[in-house]
Design a protein that fits this description.
The chain is mainly α. It is built from 15 helices and no strands. The chain starts with 6 loop residues before the first helix and ends in a 21-residue tail after the last helix.
């Protein structure tokens, strides 16, 4: 059982592990604000020997605090630009789907309007059920999910168009919705991003995972997705000169933070991506470069997948859909 320790005891433990703490009273305030678990357990691994938990190379509290601050600010940036994409994506999906299937959910939320693949029967049935449940719950004034705009359409028009319903759907919901649309309609949406349907589907799915990490206030700089990866055939890897293994798979940028940056490159408008890049660069230079020792910054870059010529991503021009895998 993990034993409770006072702030003084926590500081003593850290100093015994060779962590430099210049101002104990100030650091005590930091522990009160952030919590030992969030700050120390969350970010110390960059600065420790993995076998002994001893701090290395003159690591200090300031290094850990800077990384904590950088990661926190990074989450805010990612959330902002994920929401920027989400708004446009919802608009395009609802427009394309409604164009072919109308505005009455009793007519558009039927099996025939989705992917014909019989292997998706269960997923599509669940999708339709979930959409109907959203309408039901959001139109119920006693429900925590009540939405006045849904209630208005139910009571005044007798139906809820997808462009209204989609406002109450999460990014995860709309990711599943897109994945189960008919191929020709998925293609029409994907064309807006100059991607193939399969490329857009995996990018949206991965963005949902990264966004959920941010929403749960978890580490984002060292996040690695365990199941999903970007297609290794994306030409961006060659443009950036990312090193590959003997099978041709990129050694970074497929499921790490760099992969998220690549996703933003494809999914955001050029000016939006420029805004993301600028905000990311400012945080990286002002927080990491200026406040953390250079040898630790190298470790952090490695965790983020920022290897080789990753900065080429900023201005590289991508010719979409050259490879469709």
């Amino acid at each position: 059982m993990k034993k409770f320790t006072t702030y003084e005891e926590q500081i003593k433990i850290l100093k015994e592990r060779n962590l430099i703490i210049d101002n104990e009273e100030s650091f005590k305030d930091t522990l009160k604000d952030c919590g030992y678990y969030n700050l120390i357990n969350g970010y110390s691994f960059i600065f420790q020997d993995s076998n002994t938990n001893m701090y290395l190379n003159s690591a200090s509290v300031k290094d850990i605090q800077a990384l904590y601050t950088f990661d926190k600010n990074l989450r805010n940036i990612i959330y902002k630009y994920a929401m920027t994409f989400e708004s446009r994506f919802k608009s395009i999906v609802s427009y394309v789907f409604s164009k072919y299937h109308g505005e009455d959910e009793k007519k558009y939320l039927i099996r025939e309007n989705f992917d014909k693949d019989i292997r998706k029967e269960a997923k599509i049935a669940k999708l339709i059920s979930d959409c109907n449940n959203i309408i039901k719950e959001c139109s119920d004034k006693k429900s925590r999910r009540f939405r006045n705009y849904i209630y208005h359409y139910v009571t005044n028009h007798g139906h809820v168009p997808l462009w209204v319903l989609i406002r109450a759907m999460t990014m995860g919901d709309i990711s599943v919705f897109y994945a189960n649309m008919r191929l020709e309609e998925k293609t029409e949406v994907a064309n807006e991003y100059n991607l193939t349907p399969s490329q857009l589907e995996i990018m949206v799915k991965m963005l949902v995972s990264f966004r959920n990490t941010v929403a749960h206030d978890e580490h984002i700089f060292c996040k690695r997705l365990s199941k999903d990866k970007l297609p290794y055939t994306l030409e961006v890897y060659d443009i950036m000169r990312i090193k590959k293994n003997d099978k041709g798979y990129p050694l970074s940028g497929t499921c790490d933070f760099l992969s998220l940056m690549i996703i933003f490159k494809y999914l955001l408008k050029p000016l939006e991506f420029a805004g993301f890049w600028t905000e990311f660069t400012i945080e990286r230079e002002d927080i990491l470069i200026k406040n953390i020792k250079s040898h630790f910054v190298a470790f952090i870059n490695n965790e983020m997948g920022l290897k080789n010529r990753w900065k080429n991503l900023q201005n590289c021009r991508i010719n979409p859909k050259i490879l469709s895998n």
